[in-house]
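Cross-check.
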Amino acid sequence: MNQLGSSVSSAPDAQLDLRGTPCPINFVRTKLRLATMAPGSLLEVWLDPGEPIEQVPDSLRMEGYDIELIEEHTNFFAVKVRCPLQGVGS
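Predicted model, tokenized:
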């Protein structure tokens, strides 16, 4: 097997495709999905270029979430967000 070693966890626990979803709805949907996930799990969110990829990761960081990886694909970005082991401020 080939191991890149670029991220802690290779496969996300869940995926959320928010391509075509405008700001701030994409941020709200990401937060709602993270709230349903187990502590320490990894969510991969697909976002459009432009405002979504510029705003959503920064907004998540400000809310206390860890962005582990942002991968650029042909027409979208895949953002891996780690659920904290303890609750994030409400």
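The longest helix spans residues 51-62. DSSP finds two helices and four strands in the chain. Passed to J.P. for a second look.
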